[in-house]
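Appendix B, Record 12. Input sequence as logged:
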Amino acid sequence: MNIEEGDISKGHLEQENAVPSHFEKYLAEFVYGGIDGCVTTFAVVAGSVGAGLDSAIIIILGFANLLADGFSMSIGAYLSAKSERDNYHKHRNREYWEIRHMPEDEKEEIRAIYREKGFNGELLEQVVSTITSDRDRWVDVMMKEELEMIKDKKSPLLIGFFTYISFISVGLIPLFVYVWDFFIPLDLNIFLITSILTGAGFILIGLLKTYVNQTKMWKGALETLLLGAVAAIVAYYVGDILDHLLSR
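Logged structural output:
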């Protein structure tokens, strides 16, 4: 075995052993569901505080938003992923039909694709012959090279599930102190404590986002924190302005 073959075999084994867990596989859905849950719920809380609403009303509005928006977002994520998968299979079935009924035209497309990649002469014909000798491999190449479509191996159902779980779990942070205060009154500034806890939640979910996007940790945490802060400030002052207008 030469060096190149050894490197390829080693890399192939490492790739096979690096099987992501369900959480790692759906981490992107968890992150973006969590961001949306935290932002929207905290915006509801901030807007309600700006309008001077009682804690009981804040809890009601917060949970109504949390459950309804979380369900809506998860359904949207599920339907979007399912639509993409259905579209992939539709085009894949079409490629099988074209290979079966127009094999020469499809071979010429393979030849044109690899000619553009720099293959010529006998080598080009060997590549075309190898690819077209197996129908499944032929379709896989057409899907990737011609249509630029790659199958998403993630389950649409689990995409919706992880989106909903993250939306609910992270979205609970802005409501936690209000629920606690409702049952066990706290002689503290509830909104201030809520803002601090929510800020910590934004930073945590922002750090997870850097793992998904492979960006700098401070950048991901700061972006998410600023996003939540801007949404809360806007909601707070909208609630305050509307309260003054409607109270006249």
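Residues 1-19 have pLDDT under 50 and may be disordered.
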